[in-house]
Specification:
Blueprint: H1 2-24, E1 48-54, E2 87-97, E3 100-102, E4 117-118, E5 125-130, H2 138-145, E6 153-154, E7 157-158, E8 161-167, E9 170-174, E10 188-193, E11 200-204
Parallel strand pairs: 1-11, 2-10
Antiparallel strand pairs: 2-3, 2-5, 4-5, 6-7, 8-9, 8-10
Length: 209
């Protein structure tokens, strides 16, 4: 009698154990958890070129890519038409696409009126002119330009996009909301899309700017 019961139960026990082992090994078609995605790549450390590039009014620095001019004559994102130049500072915006610098368009913010934030030429200079000291942001500048600004698109350029601030020839990666980047006197905002350049341009600012 014992041998008959054992012969009946033993195959069932072995089958049950096999199922347990299969589950433990992740078998059964799709039972295993997907691998964790790779973390985003950190912004590469970029330095400045070893030699200076002169920058000044009327220059074109970079490869032309966009058409010139923007504005409606009406307030845009808190930016008004200029009433006074009592407060006047300058910054630089540099945009790189796969290692090539693109020229910032001329006459951004000069259609309809002269806006408090604008460009004159393709040098990369951004002018802030108003009655008194006032906060200006990169988001406002792109609003006046009429172009997209984000971590997935900048002025029609898409890909991996990184932002850098250059103050007193010190390069600092910026990982926050790019629209919140504040302009400051003699600050450069570098936007790098795709493959970064070997080094960012080191500008020689003209006297008086």
């Amino acid at each position: 009698m014992f041998s008959i019961v054992r012969s009946i139960r033993l195959p069932r026990i072995l089958a049950f154990c096999s199922l347990l082992l299969l589950a433990a090994c992740g078998g059964g078609g799709g039972g295993s958890a997907p691998p964790n995605p790779d973390p985003p790549a950190p912004s590469p450390t970029l330095g400045l070129a070893s030699t200076y590039t002169d920058i000044g009014e009327g220059m074109t620095l970079g490869q032309e890519h966009w058409g010139s001019g923007s504005g409606t004559g009406q307030p845009i994102d808190g930016i008004q038409c200029v009433n006074s130049e009592a407060y006047h500072i300058h910054s630089i915006v540099s945009i790189y696409l796969n290692g090539t610098r693109l020229a910032l368009p001329a006459e951004i913010g000069l259609k309809g009126c002269t806006y408090e934030i604008h460009t004159h030429d393709e040098s990369g200079f951004v002018h802030m002119e108003t009655e008194a000291a006032k906060k200006f942001t990169l988001g406002q500048f792109f609003s006046v330009w009429g172009q997209a600004l984000g971590t997935s698109e900048v002025a029609g350029l898409t890909g991996i996009i990184r932002f850098y601030l250059i103050d007193n020839e010190t390069v600092t990666p910026y990982t926050g909301n790019p629209a919140d980047i504040e302009f400051a006197s003699r600050r450069e905002i570098a936007i790098v899309v795709g493959t970064p350049p070997d080094a960012l341009v080191r500008h020689r600012w003209p006297a008086g700017m």
